[in-house]
């Protein structure tokens, strides 16, 4: 406790770090304030928005704003969708690839394109959200007037959230976009704990304590999965520059066990509604289609979790393949005078890195699938649905990743001012690491 208090004193003794933390807290407070502002023309007491399946995940990311029909009902998610689309285009189209290689000017152009695309995505999602989730009996004005006004408000709300995220990134602490998502998830945690404690009651207090211990172990498992790295040694040849001998040191190429992060889970969840949707079209004519629809509407069935886990493993290989290019890494190493001991530069190095990636991607995908299906397993034990969501899946991985990145930034400030780090056992490592090439 004494060390913890001293660390807090060290943090707030650094003027720049203190200002960044306070600025971040202020913007987070503004963001949460928008949760309580309901769209004009809606009677919130008559809202009964279904948040099952993918909509439930979206509502979790937005801290409940989606189900409350607030002005931040779509939050930062359209910006996330636009960013993913631009990222995929950057990997597929030469025009965007060229723009990405232009340095700072290219990055600014891509950011501007992402912002413009966000507006169109938000408008499309706003219309869909208003038409399919807001019941007519909850409206205080005509449907047409409500739709037109709310599309403008929701779009402005998303743009404002995007601006908040950029301000946190530039002048605050941590990645602003990820921080807003994390705050939405964390805001539901106290309520989930309370509901679980009430449902267990005094007669099952020991079970509730065991659930808390299990949650702690799951979080530690998620941290280990996020941090696990296969370090490939790289040796740099010695070079004579003037009167000095440069190079000759050994560094490491960090290949993460979970290179793809939460993307495989997000892609897999986006596809899991298709079986029930297609089967539902023929449910009245076929008992088999009806059983399929029923099975895949329940996320606790073994069929649902089996398909979900398989999709996650497939997408883990897919996303790793498009995110890391062994050939490019090998070329960069060759230009920098680096080589892997015992491996020839060029094609042999590329093949070696690809082999290592294949060997770590499979266990990484399996472990990621285990984390993804843990909430359904937790629900089967009798936990409340909201509390079970914190036992794995996208929510837990986002929480772990954002917290590690933020702590890494804080520790960097402490070490820069010659203070001790946050941990005695070593430095805090975030998700972003520099490749030694």
Can you characterise this structure?
The protein is mainly α and 437 residues long. Helix content is 67%, strand content 5%. It contains 19 helices and five strands. The protein has helices at 2-13, 15-33, 54-61, 65-68, 77-92, 94-100, 104-133, 143-171, 176-186, 189-200, 205-227, 263-271, 273-281, 287-297, 302-323, 326-335, 347-380, 385-388, 393-416; strands at residues 229-236, 239-241, 244-246, 250-256, 338-339. The longest helix has 34 residues, at 347-380. It is globular, with a radius of gyration of 24 Å. The model is unreliable at 432-437 (pLDDT under 50).
Could you give the order of the helices and strands? HHHHHHHHHHHEEEEHHHHHEHHH
Query: Count of helices?
Result: 19
Strand count, sense and closure of the main sheet? 3 strands, antiparallel
**Rg over alpha carbons:** 24 Å
The count of strands amounts to: 5
Please indicate the count of domains.
Answer: 2
The CATH topology label of the largest domain is Preprotein translocase SecY subunit
Alpha-beta content class: mainly alpha
Helix content: 55-70%
Strand percent estimate: 5-15%
Shape: globular
CATH secondary-structure class of the largest domain: Mainly Alpha
In order across it, which strands form the biggest sheet?
4-1-5
Spatial gap, N to C terminus: 41 Å
What is the typical, i.e. mean, pLDDT?
81
CATH 4th-level superfamily of the largest domain: SecY subunit domain
CATH architecture field of the largest domain: Orthogonal Bundle
Uncertain segments are 432-437
InterPro entries: SecY, SecY/SEC61-alpha, SecY_CS, SecY_dom_sf
Protein name: Protein translocase subunit SecY
Main location: membrane
Transmembrane segments: 21-38, 71-96, 116-134, 140-164, 205-225, 261-282, 302-325, 360-381, 387-407
């Amino acid at each position: 406790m004494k060390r913890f208090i001293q660390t807090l004193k060290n943090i707030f003794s650094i003027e720049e770090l203190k200002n960044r933390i306070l600025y971040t807290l202020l913007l987070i407070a503004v963001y949460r304030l928008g949760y309580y502002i309901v769209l004009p023309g809606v009677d919130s007491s008559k809202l009964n928005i279904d948040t099952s399946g993918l909509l439930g995940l979206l509502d979790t990311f937005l801290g409940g704003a989606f189900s409350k029909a607030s002005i931040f009902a779509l939050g930062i998610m359209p910006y996330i969708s636009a960013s993913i689309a631009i990222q995929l285009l950057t990997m597929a189209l030469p025009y965007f690839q060229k723009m990405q290689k232009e340095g700072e000017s290219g990055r600014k152009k891509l950011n501007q394109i992402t912002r413009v695309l966000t507006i169109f995505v938000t408008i499309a999602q706003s219309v869909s959200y208003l038409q399919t989730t807001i019941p007519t009996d909850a409206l205080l004005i005509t449907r047409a007037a409500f739709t037109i006004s709310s599309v403008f408000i929701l779009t402005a709300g998303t743009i404002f959230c995007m601006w908040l995220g950029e301000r946190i990134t530039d002048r605050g602490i941590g990645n602003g976009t990820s921080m807003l998502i994390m705050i939405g998830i964390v805001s539901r945690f106290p309520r989930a704990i309370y509901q679980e404690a009430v449902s267990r009651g005094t007669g099952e207090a020991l079970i509730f304590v065991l659930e808390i211990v299990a949650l702690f172990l799951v979080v530690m498992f998620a941290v280990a999965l996020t941090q696990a790295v296969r370090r490939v040694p790289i040796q740099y040849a010695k070079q004579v520059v003037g009167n000095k001998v440069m190079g000759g040191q050994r560094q490491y190429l960090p290949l993460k066990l979970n290179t793809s992060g939460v993307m495989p889970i997000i892609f897999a969840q986006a596809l899991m509604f298709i079986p029930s949707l297609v089967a539902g079209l023929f449910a009245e004519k076929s008992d088999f289609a009806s059983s399929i629809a029923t099975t895949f509407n329940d996320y606790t069935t073994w069929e649902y979790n089996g398909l979900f886990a398989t999709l996650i493993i497939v997408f883990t290989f897919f996303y790793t393949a498009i995110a890391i290019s062994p050939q490019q890494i090998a070329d960069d190493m060759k230009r920098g005078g680096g080589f892997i001991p015992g491996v020839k530069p060029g094609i042999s190095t590329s093949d070696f890195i690809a082999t290592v990636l294949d060997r770590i991607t499979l266990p990484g995908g399996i472990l990621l699938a285990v984390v993804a299906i843990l909430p359904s397993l937790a629900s089967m034990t009798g936990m409340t649905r909201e509390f079970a969501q914190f036992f794995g899946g996208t929510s837990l991985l986002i929480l772990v990743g954002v917290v590690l990145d933020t702590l890494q930034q804080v520790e960097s400030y402490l070490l820069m001012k010659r203070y001790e780090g946050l941990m005695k056992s070593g430095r805090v490592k975030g998700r972003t690491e520099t490749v030694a090439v």
